[in-house]
Amino acid sequence: MEIQMKKLASGFTLPALALGTWGMGGRHERMADYPDEAKDIAAIQKAYELGIRRFDTAQMYAEGYSEEILGKALHDVARADIFVTSKVSPEHLQYEGVIRSLEESLERLNMEYLDLYLIHKPNHEIPISETMKAFDALMTQGRIKNIGVSNFSVESLQEAQACSMHPIRLNQVHYNLLFREPVTKGLLAYCQQNDIFLEAWRPVQQGSLCQQGTKIVDDMAAKYGKTPAQIAINWLLGQDHVVTLFKSSDIAHVKENIGALGWSLEPDDAALLSHDFPIQLDRSNAVQLG
Ligand SMILES: NC(=O)c1ccc[n+]([C@@H]2O[C@H](COP(=O)([O-])OP(=O)(O)OC[C@H]3O[C@@H](n4cnc5c(N)ncnc54)[C@H](OP(=O)(O)O)[C@@H]3O)[C@@H](O)[C@H]2O)c1
């Protein structure tokens, strides 16, 4: 299936839907004797086979093991055919820390460059100007093709952009039917006005938005002949400047989530979900960021 593309006014284009890797190989720590590597690899390869071309990982995930798993899964794929994002952890945002982190990520991924490199989370102990200088150097060297951030507020995003030579393409934040902070804090509007992608992490709230039992979603699922997960993902992708990424190590879930593409909620139904979804929280409760 051809995955829908989204384009900024600047011309920067991304596949709207990506596969994430948080949890593959462990969470914050590399899991010893991890039993699911083959399953993760099969899910990543199935996602590729079904048309997914954008993949997301991070230095922090399983202490780099998620990057290794992704690298193994994509080993035989032409590099130019995929778009790979990774992230530098907040404790490594010093100039040398960024340069070293990127090299280590590339080694684990077995790749020569990243398509997009993100600051995983702000660290107010380290001047953002120092971090952006390192990102600019990596851009100049061609080791990264685009820069972005994650979990940045409007203010942090403005500060980062002010000291970067290159445009910030994307801010990855917690956003789904349940968690609305990007809307309530004006971040989505800021990204739309400033031509930056807002990438919604945790689009199905780790599976809870895949369940039946919320009437408004169940009604919508029945009307469109889709599942709750597909409704949740389609609602995000119908929004201006919004892209998203889900994690799954289950081939059936990968197929299901890709089925969120290729059709659209009617604008009135999307608006209904925006206004009437019964629980709306305006602060991320993610204790551990993926
Ligand atoms: N920048 C950040 O701070 C940050 C934070 C969190 C996440 N992220 C990125 O965003 C990606 C997605 O977020 P996430 O992994 O936290 O949450 P998510 O994609 O909302 O949910 C993933 C979980 O939901 C399950 N799932 C997925 N599709 C399903 C379906 N159709 N039916 C039933 N269960 C389903 C998966 O289980 P199965 O594997 O069994 O399918 C997995 O346990 C991450 O992998 C990561 O790359 C970034």
UniProtKB/TrEMBL annotation:
Coiled coil: none annotated. Substrate binds at residue 120. CDD domains: AKR_AKR3F1-like (cd19072). The active site is at 61 (proton donor). Residues 17-271 form the NADP-dependent oxidoreductase domain. The record marks 87 as: Lowers pKa of active site Tyr. One of its GO terms (molecular function) is oxidoreductase activity. PANTHER family: ALDEHYDE REDUCTASE, OXIDOREDUCTASE, ALDO/KETO REDUCTASE FAMILY PROTEIN. This is Aldo/keto reductase. The lineage of its organism: Bacteria, Candidatus Magasanikiibacteriota.
